[in-house]
Amino acid sequence: MSNQRTSVAILNRAALTRRLVERLKHDEAVIAGIGNANFDLIAAGHRPQNFYMLGSMGLACPIALGVALAQPRRGVIALEGDGSMLMMLGSLATIANMRPTNLTIIIWDNGIYQITGKQPTATAGLTDIVAVARGAGFAVSEWVRDAAHFDALIDRRFEAGGPVLLAAKIDDEPGKGRQARDPPLIRRRFMEGLGASRD
Amino acid sequence: MTWSDTLLQTLKDNEVRLIAHVPDNVLTPLIKAVAADNYFVSVGATREDEAVGTATGAYMAGLRSAVLMQTSGFALIANALASLVVPYQIPAILVISERGTLGEFNVGQTLVARTMRPTLEALGIVHHTLTDQSTLRFILDSSIKQAFTTQAPVAFILSPLLTGGNPAAHAHLV
Which of B88, B145, B150 is the best substitution to test chain A (most A C-beta atoms within 10 A)? Predict the structure, then answer.
C-alpha cells in the first residue's frame, strides 16, 4: 500500500538534502532548482557534480534529463520545489517517455511559493504531485514516509529500471546556504565535475 | 540535397547529437529524420523552454545539442535564454522555423514573429536568417563552430524563402 500525501511525516529539506548527499558515492550529478533547493544543496557542502540554477524557474528536471541522456552510466538527481515543478509539469511526460533509468527527481513539497511570500501552491489544495507523475507515466512515484524511508528509497532507486520521482512533504524553514552567483564558474566547475570539460 | 538534408548533415559533421524539438509543419522532415537516425538522441519536448533546458543539460554533460522550434515557440524561451543560456555561456544551437511572414494567414503568428529578432538583439544572440540553399552549408557550419569555440548561442531562422514555408499558408493564399 503506497503512502498518501496526507499521512506522511513533515520533514526538513536541509536535513534530507544532507542525508542525500551523504549517500552519494559515485559522483552523481545533482541539479538543484532555483531558491531553497539550491541553498540547501550548497549548505550540504559543495560537490563538483552540483549544478546550481539562477533563474530559469522550472528547468531543473529538463536540465537533469539532458545530463542523464548524455551520461547514461551516471546517476542524476534533480531537486525541485513544488512551485517550480508545477510550472513545468509537461517535463514529467517527456521524462517518463524517454525512460532514463539513471534519473531521479526529488520534489520538496511545502505547498507554498516560499521565497516570494509564502503564497499557496496548487499542492496545498487538491494537486498530488506523486499522482501527477504516475499519470505522466512514471513507474515509480512515491511519497516519502519519513527520513528512514527516504534513505531506503534513495538506495533502491535503480531497482525498477526507470526514472523515479520521490516527493517529501517539508516544513517552511528557509534554505541556509548561498551559492556563488557566477554562472560561467558554476557551469565550468560542473562540466569539470562530469568530465565534460574540453580544457 | 534538400535544405533539411544539409542541416542534418552539418549537425552531424559538428557532432551535434541531441536534438530537442517541438513540432512545426516545416520542421517535419527534420524531426522525422532525427527520430529515424541512431546517431541522434531525439527528445520530443512539451514546450520550447523545456527543450532548451534539456539541450543545456546535455551540452554540460558532454553531448552537443540543438533545439528545433517554430517562431511562436521562440516567444516562450526568453527567460530560459536570459537566465540560463546566455549567462552560463551555453552554445545552444537554436533552429527556428519562421512563420508570421511571406504569406502568413494567422494574425497571431504575424504579431509574435515581430518579437523574435528584437529579443535576439536585446540578448546579443548571434542570428542568421537562412534564405538560400547555396549559402546554407557555409553559414550553418561556420556558425555552429563559432558557437562552440566562443561558448555562445546561435539562432538560425529558417525563412520561407529556403523552406517553402508552411503548406497550410499556400492553401489559404489560393
Answer: B88
